[in-house]
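does this look right to u?? nicotinamide-adenine-dinucleotide version
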Amino acid sequence: MKLTGKTAIVTGGGGGIGRATALRFAKEGAKVVVADIDSVNGEETVKYIRELGGSSFFVETDVTNPEQIKELIEVTVSKYDGLHIMFNNAGIGNSEVRSVDLSVEEWDRVIDINLKGVFLGIKYAVPELIKSGGGSIINTSSLLGLKGQKFVSAYNASKAGVVLLTQNASLEYGKYNIRINAIAPGVIDTKIIDNWKQNERKWPIISRANALGRIGTPDEVANAVLFLASDEASFITGTTLSVDGGGLTF
Ligand SMILES: NC(=O)c1ccc[n+]([C@@H]2O[C@H](COP(=O)([O-])OP(=O)(O)OC[C@H]3O[C@@H](n4cnc5c(N)ncnc54)[C@H](O)[C@@H]3O)[C@@H](O)[C@H]2O)c1
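got this back:
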């Protein structure tokens, strides 16, 4: 097992990529704290982990709220005696409209969750990772953090921000043996793409727009996150790993 003795937090752990990763971490021996704004789905992830024989609990958390992230880290450290892995994964999409038609409220909400949420995760996890003698932070960016697409201005900007925030933090905290990387998933089969699936004209194109000609699964992303979290990635920091079936090069 690759994560024996480690404690991990997964934000957005009630949803597709977060849940798959929480389960993957638990199967590799980690104690997993599931954080999500959605308590029903978050508790369900915990239930699945416990059914596997893993150790886990849920903390209702809005990643835009500094006090709640602080508390999430505090309760994790007090119950599990330390923190080693932080997966800053919670995120939302944005309505597909031109920038001029995007409301300022929606812009703020997308940037708050997708970018400020990652900043807060780094801000409050790093001091505990230093106490643990090092660790790994993985931030969820997107294929759309690496290339522009029409009608998703806030999402594009938030996810591009995650790439450089990851580089910045990796430079600041490498000397404490903390590795900080991002993943950039392509189209992955989760709730977030439900409205794309309803679009009969676009979906056949979107769902095949990569070298492999198919969408990815949450488990395929979880495998990449596990690699970055584990000691197998011991000399990898500051990078953004595409998990997109070749979507970036398509
Ligand atoms: N599915 C894709 O195609 C895809 C592609 C690239 C990047 N991503 C990114 O992957 C991450 C996970 O998304 P997913 O695809 O699993 O979708 P999902 O909707 O299944 O999961 C997202 C989870 O985040 C939670 N969440 C939303 N706002 C929150 C908040 N303020 N605080 C705490 N939790 C909150 C939701 O309740 C949900 O459980 C997101 O950052 C998303 O942008 C997804």
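The mean pLDDT is 98. idk if thats expected tbh
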